[in-house]
Amino acid sequence: MRYLGYLLCAGLIGYLLTGLTQVRPGERAVVRRFGKVVDKTGPGLLIGLPYGMDRVDRVPVDLVRRVRVGFQPESDESDQNTPAGQLLTGDQNLVNVQVVLDYAVDDELIEDFVVNAERIDGVIARTVEAALAEWLAARDVDEVLIAGKAELPNELARRVKALLRPYRLGARIQGVSVSYLFPPDEVKFAFDEVSRAQTAIGTRIHEARQEEARRLLGAEAERNQIEKMTAAYAREQVVLARAEAANFEKRLKQYQQLRKENPNILAGIWWDEIGKLFASMKENGRIDLLDNHLGSDGLDITIAPPLPKKK
Q1: Are 94 and 88 in contact (CB under 8 A)?
Q2: Do 115 and 40 contact (CB within 8 A), yes or no?
Q3: Contact between residue 132 and residue 189 where contact means Cβ atoms under 8 Å apart
Q4: How far is CA 149 from the centre of its chain?
Q5: Beta strands of the chain (E only): which ranges?
């Protein structure tokens, strides 16, 4: 009888110890008492009511969970008419696509995460499939294959967040990536040929734009050089014109002063300049026939040649 009492005491103590829970670092505990959430606590020793009264769910809040949706390249689905992840584009072409969604626990909605824990992955997978089919149906196959891996992650994350918000799953979307995006194997060769042709076109366009930029730079440099030379020439001509104008004004003043003293000074200046002109012409060999009439005072043509003798 005494041993039975010991056993009952040990059982009672063991039952009471079920109310102790150790919450590890990186975890948060959600305490439900008779099904109602009564507490949310962090790491440490949690003391509550024993099993049957309290239920403690420890949730790793730092853990990033992953849901893979769509085509499985390694699986054998040849007996299916349409493999999972093979979807139609807007122009009625098939593509095989697989996306990976990462999510974590939303600290503010951790009790919702605990309540929906068993169905979260399924709901997310179905939501991703719906958003993916919607995105593909709005684009043609070329746009999907060329820009899908760059544009789809952000668009899909935004759309999935909006679709999941009413469900209050307590999950926070971390990111979406496209792990597989190719046409079906039956037409992959044709798509590869189109892709290579489009790549070649892109390369030609890039080269043409580079050539255009190079020629524009050359033309701009040539224009700048011409503008600089024109500006320098214009400045030089302005300086020369101003110098000639100043020299003319100086000579004009000298002439006006000399004319007061000698009214015939203009004729002297005239003959002086004519003499300089004829001297220059003689140096260049242009008035050889008149050389004998050119003296120090200028050109003298008043001497008539001798008359021919009469026979």
Answers
A1: yes
A2: no
A3: no
A4: 17
A5: 20-23, 27-33, 36-41, 44-47, 54-60, 65-70, 86-88, 94-105, 171-182, 294-295, 298-299
**DSSP state letter for 291:** G
Q: Flag whether the pTM goes above 0.90.
A: no
Evaluate whether 28 touches 110 at the Cβ level (below 8 Å): yes
d(CA 9, CA 15): 10
Q: Using the predicted structure, report yes or no on whether residue 32 has a pLDDT greater than 70.
A: yes
How would you classify the pairing of strands 20-23 and 44-47?
antiparallel
Kindly tell me if the per-residue pLDDT of 162 is higher than 90: yes
CA 145 – CA 195 distance, rounded (Å): 9
Query: How many whole angstroms separate alpha carbon 21 and alpha carbon 249?
Result: 112
Q: Which residues contact 202 (CB under 8 A, 6 or more apart)?
A: none
Query: Exposed (0-12), middle (13-18) or buried (19+): which is 184, by Cβ within 10 Å?
Result: middle
Structure tokens at 103: 């999510």
pLDDT band at 191 (very low <50, low <70, confident <90, very high): confident
Which contiguous run of DSSP H or E holds residue 241?
helix 188-261
**Does domain 65-185 fall into CATH 3.30.479.30?**
yes
Distance of CA 302 to the CA centre of its chain: 90
Q: Token pair for residue 93?
A: 């072409």
Dig out the tokens for 119 from the structure.
Answer: 């169905």
CA-based angle 49:55:60, to the nearest 5?
Answer: 125
User: What interhelical angle do 188-261 and 141-164 show, nearest 10?
Assistant: 100
Mean pLDDT across the chain: 81
Closest CA to 103 of 58, 47, 59: 59
To the nearest 10°, the Cα dihedral for 56, 175, 99, 135? 120
Contact 140, 92 (CB under 8 A): no
Q: Computed from CA positions of residues 251, 254, 255, 256, in that sequence, does the dihedral angle turn out positive or negative?
A: positive
